[in-house]
Automatic annotation (TrEMBL):
Record region (Disordered): 1-23, 347-371
Occurrences of domain G-protein coupled receptors family 1 profile (ranges): 63-319
Topology within the bilayer: Multi-pass membrane protein
Organism: Channa argus
Highest taxon in the source lineage: Eukaryota
Protein name listed in UniProt: Neuropeptide Y receptor type 2
Keywords in alphabetical order: G-protein coupled receptor, Membrane, Receptor, Transducer, Transmembrane, Transmembrane helix
Family to which the UniProt record says this protein belongs: Belongs to the G-protein coupled receptor 1 family.
Compartment list: Membrane
């Protein structure tokens, strides 16, 4: 990829793999630093960036950990859909821990401070987590499409769901592998400012930017356009099916639950698409050398990256807002209340102390299905 010109000069610096400006221009969320004066060097801007990244990391860690905890802790939350939601939460946790801290430090210091091993592993982990996220959203949409549109009474088993999750991680690892393989850690001297810096940059086989551009375009298709097209088609079909479905009163509650859950999951996808769209568009423009000479390229890139990272904590907020099971579970954790044995479809919960009454009630003690 062609290196960006982050200086305020006329842009006569040489392009190519040996150019020290070409550090992190790839699809993982890390970007080329600027060694000249730029707005990100202002103390106020740096404090704002630190606060924004720290808040997103904190909310992402807290929310996604709570989601995984609830699904693991409560038996009736262990449904196939919730397993896939847990897989999505795990990928978001990976983004929070292996993407954002490194990106923040790199943005502030303009140098790779983490050594040769992490030079290969961090971009790989970042790309891996993004692929797993979008594949998990796709799998959730296709599973609900299979069950609702085709009325397939037989749901996926736990064994099948775990095999599918393993498959998503395997495919994601293959797609992210080039970012670990075609990479180089070295030190570069910049005589003009008498500086020696550590560089972690892409190094494609033919030594040109063409391979990098091809990879970025491929990832745009595989990581964003194609999955969102499939997901959109699945949810449109589900929406049409549920809208036209006429159900007897005995099944009305079940139909309403399906509508609410589908609406929640579709909104998760919409938020993901909106958060990542500016980043993908700007990244593609960077690969095509259309925006690299913007004076505030680095700041714009960082802002779009922050917007993309917001998708890592919005999912738990959507679950808590639109699903009573998750909402009540979150509240119980924060209030340190007695842990319930299961949730019911309307989101209320029963503790062990009231189980005896439930067993003698009209439901016969059978806990209803969660999300």
């Amino acid at each position: 990829m062609s290196p960006p010109n982050t200086s305020n000069s006329s842009g006569e610096e040489e392009a190519g793999e040996n150019n020290p400006w070409n550090l992190f221009n790839d699809t993982t969320g890390l970007h080329p630093p600027g060694f000249h004066t730029d707005v990100t060097k202002h103390v106020g801007v740096q404090i704002t960036l630190i606060a924004a990244y720290s808040l997103i990391i904190l909310l992402g860690l807290l929310g996604n950990t709570l989601v995984i905890y609830m699904i693991v802790r409560y038996r009736n939350m262990r449904t196939v859909t919730n397993f896939f939601i847990a897989n999505l939460a795990l990928a978001d946790l990976l983004v929070n821990t292996l993407c954002m801290p490194f990106t923040l430090v790199y943005t502030l210091l303009d140098e790779w401070k983490f050594g040769a091993v992490l030079c290969h592993m961090v971009p790989f982990a970042q790309a891996l987590s993004v692929h797993v996220s979008i594949l998990s959203l796709t799998v959730i949409a296709l599973e609900r499409y299979r069950c609702i549109v085709f009325h397939l009474g037989r749901r996926l088993t736990w064994h099948s769901s775990f095999l599918i999750m393993a498959f998503t991680w395997t495919v994601s690892a293959v797609l992210a592998a080039p970012l670990a393989i075609f990479r180089e850690y070295r030190h570069e001297d910049i005589p003009s400012i008498n500086l020696r810096i550590a560089v972690c940059s892409e190094k494609w086989p033919r030594g040109t930017s063409r391979d990098g551009v091809i990879y970025s375009l491929s990832m745009l298709l595989l990581q964003y356009i194609i999955p969102l097209a499939v997901i959109s088609y699945a949810y449109i079909c589900i929406w049409v099916k549920l809208r036209n479905h006429i159900s007897p009163s005995s099944r009305k509650d079940s139909l309403n639950r399906r509508k609410k859950t589908t609406k929640m999951l579709a909104l998760v996808v919409v938020v993901f698409a909106i958060c990542w769209l500016p980043f993908h568009v700007f990244q593609l423009a960077s690969d095509l050398d259309l925006v690299l000479r913007f004076k505030e390229y680095k700041l714009i890139y960082t802002v779009f990256h922050i917007v993309a990272m917001c998708s890592t904590f919005t999912n738990p907020l959507l679950y808590g807002w639109m699903n009573k099971n998750y909402r009540n579970g979150f509240l119980m954790v924060f209030r340190c209340e007695d842990k319930p044995e299961f949730f019911n479809p309307e989101g209320s919960f029963r503790t062990r102390s009231t189980r005896g009454l439930t067993l003698n009630g009209r439901n016969g003690g059978h806990p209803p299905t969660a999300v």
